[in-house]
Amino acid sequence: MEKSTNNSNRVCQILKIEKPVIQGALFWLTDAKLVAAVSEAGGLGVLGPHAGQNSLPKDDVEKAERMREEIRKVKELTLKPFGIKILHSGKNPDVQLELMLKVVYEEKVPVAVVVYDGQDICENTIKDLKSHGVTVIYSQITVTPDNARKALELILLLLQEWMKEEIFQSII
What we know:
This protein is of the alpha/beta class and 172 residues long. The protein contains seven helices and four strands.
């Protein structure tokens, strides 16, 4: 079967991926191997905050450096796009955020999934990421009926796109 791509899908175009699949950035369960495998399969692999780790870091500097190492491992395994989950605490200044952004910029991570419970404080972070050429996916933490409806609409849109793919047509 010929490898199918979906260049007409907006999600794929924006993220520069083949399939409109974004792997969840599970805190402790993601690692470079999983992220690279998802990216190699045509989706977007995303490193979680404690990716590849089995113990808590002693401080924010160690946490950022551990993430740097995991990013480098991903890059050894794939040349395809991947992302990193960025947690925005809402603190001002947010030392952990600043350290993680520094790593993202220095390691040239192509995509950031920014998570925060409210967009106001996050706007500057998103603008800063974009100014460094990072594609941003914004994810709100609070689950409200409106957020749930929007998420369902996105899932339905993705399913509709998947239905067009040959591989999914053979399943139906």
